[in-house]
Design goal:
Elements: E1 7-11, H1 14-17, H2 63-77, E2 81-85, H3 88-91, H4 102-117, E3 121-127, H5 133-139, H6 146-161, E4 168-172, H7 183-186, H8 205-229, E5 234-240, E6 243-246, H9 251-274, H10 279-287, H11 298-304, E7 309-313, E8 317-320, E9 343-344, E10 350-351, H12 353-367, E11 371-375, H13 393-412, E12 416-422, E13 442-444, E14 456-458, H14 460-470
Parallel strand pairs: 1-2, 1-12, 2-3, 3-4, 4-5, 5-7, 6-8, 7-11, 11-12
Antiparallel strand pairs: 9-10, 13-14
Helix pairs in contact: 2-4, 6-8, 8-11, 12-13
């Protein structure tokens, strides 16, 4: 049974909902330079904004102008928590200013005030796949140690400003994407001229892991600063957990699954929760001739900047095999092969509710600190009928089955503090920039071609989730 103070809610990201990219003295950020795409065409990163191209985040779903309406709808569902991110470039437009942008600070003041008016706790991500564009162009993002202090300056500013409005914070979203090439730009801010598009980047392992080391330091410094500003802050990490199973009981499948699990799912959490580099990463660095350049107090800082709780996203599981010629699922992150026991979403993501229970038990056994599920949902093509109704039974079924397994994990003894589905409203897709791929419980009248007036329409899942929250998960 869930505790009566369990945090039910939903999650978003500034670069996928806000829009208003050139309003309020906001500066250019990474997402402002990402074009729209599809699974076939992919999004592209352009160094200069081309007026002939489509940049979905420029308007997104216009939360910038609709936040009061949206938060009122979240309150109608009974949200206890709303996870969102702050756009760094709204606070420091280039990242290098000495003084923050007051218009940007005021915007988030207004958003938090609106949440608190309804008794909704904000859970704020400081870095959600975005940073001021100048820091990419001038420094190659976190590849340069100077960006650590620029991030900490930004974190300090918002910690101080919102210390009486925000209790829960996350430093970096899905930080472990830096362990695969697609995280070069999103997490690390590294862009190479040889990059074809942002989903198939040119990769340099030495640069990638050196920059990730700097991200670890930035996170640890932010945690320490936050705790000094308000000792009641709860500051967490955020990991994209792609649960991995060996495809067979062949010993080589077992070993490969274990190694992949360590390198993708465990490494970043181990550093941020335990405060040091785990044993297994040292052999990987040796095999790949990676040498992390550290300064004298880096290891001390990592140890002193451990997070208070562990949060993660969960959408799918993967199978890992050393065997060749096996069928692969197009949506599986990390490659992997198709699990014959699971169904897939329209985008090829394999649906595994029981894997969530397995994952919760694994994580709590590993870390023994409070957990939060801060992303879980399904992307689908939703159709609005003539009466503006959206019958998304598939979404209800997906979330229902995952909540059932979540509750079983709590009964197993896991200390779980909250569940935030992705996403309470339709947003532009992070991977493709599409509106066609919808996650929300609230439909946004907007398509991939810029048509629509941004009207909001609750889906069937909206009313279902309200009942779930009203009964603290007892009625599903």
């Amino acid at each position: 049974m869930l505790n009566k103070d369990f945090l039910w809610g939903g999650s978003t990201a500034a670069n996928q909902i806000e829009g208003g990219y050139d309003e309020g003295n906001k500066g250019d950020c990474i997402s402002d330079h990402l074009t729209g795409g599809t699974l076939e065409t992919r999004r592209c990163f352009t160094k200069r904004i081309d007026p002939q191209k489509n940049y979905p985040s420029h308007e997104a779903v216009d939360f910038y102008h609709h936040y009061k309406e949206d938060i009122a709808l979240f309150a109608q569902m009974g949200f206890k928590v709303f996870r969102m991110s702050i756009a760094w470039s709204r606070i420091y437009p280039t990242g290098e200013e000495n003084e923050p942008n007051e218009e940007g600070l005021k915007f988030y003041d207004d958003v938090f005030d609106e949440c608190l008016k309804y008794g909704i706790e904000p859970l704020v991500t400081l870095h959600h796949f975005d940073m001021p564009y100048l820091l990419v162009e001038k420094y190659q993002g976190f590849l340069n140690r100077k960006v650590i202090d620029l991030f900490v300056k930004y974190a300090t500013t918002v910690f101080e400003r919102y210390k009486n409005k925000v209790k829960y914070w996350l430093t970096f979203n899905e930080i472990n994407f830096a362990c695969i090439p697609m995280g070069n730009l999103e997490v690390l801010g590294i862009y190479h001229e040889k990059t074809k598009d942002y989903t198939e980047p040119y990769d340099n392992l030495q640069d990638r892991y050196q920059a990730l080391h700097h991200v670890f330091l930035a996170s640890a410094k932010a945690v320490r600063v936050g705790h000094k500003i308000n000792k009641n802050f709860k500051i967490g990490c955020m990991i994209a957990h792609v649960t991995l199973y060996p495809y067979s009981c062949h010993p080589q499948d077992m070993l490969l699954a274990q190694k992949t699990d360590h390198l993708f799912n465990d490494f970043c959490g181990d550093v941020q929760v335990r405060g040091y580099y785990p044993y297994y990463i040292k052999e990987y660095f040796k095999e790949n001739k990676i040498h992390i350049i550290k300064e004298e107090n880096d290891d001390v800082l990592l140890k002193k900047g451990c997070v208070d709780f562990y949060s993660f996203s969960y959408y799918m599981s993967n199978c890992i095999s050393c065997q060749e010629g096996l069928e692969t699922s197009m949506g599986n992150l990390l490659g992997g092969v198709t699990n014959p026991y699971l169904k897939s979403s329209e985008w090829g993501w394999q649906i595994d509710p029981e894997g969530l229970r397995y994952t919760l038990n694994k994580l709590y056994d590993r870390y023994q600190i409070p957990l939060m599920i801060v992303e879980n949902g399904i992307g689908a093509v939703d159709v609005k009928d003539a009466n503006n109704l959206i019958h998304d039974t598939y979404r209800v079924e997906y979330i229902k089955k995952h909540i059932e397994q979540m509750k079983r994990a709590v009964d197993d003894g896991v200390d779980l503090k909250g569940y935030m589905m992705w996403s309470p409203i339709d947003i532009i897709s992070s991977s493709t920039g599409e509106m066609k791929k919808r996650y929300g419980l609230i439909y946004i009248d907007r398509d991939d071609y810029g048509n629509g007036d941004f009207s909001r329409y609750p889906k069937d899942s909206f009313y279902w989730y309200k009942k779930v929250i009203d009964t603290n998960g007892e009625i599903l």
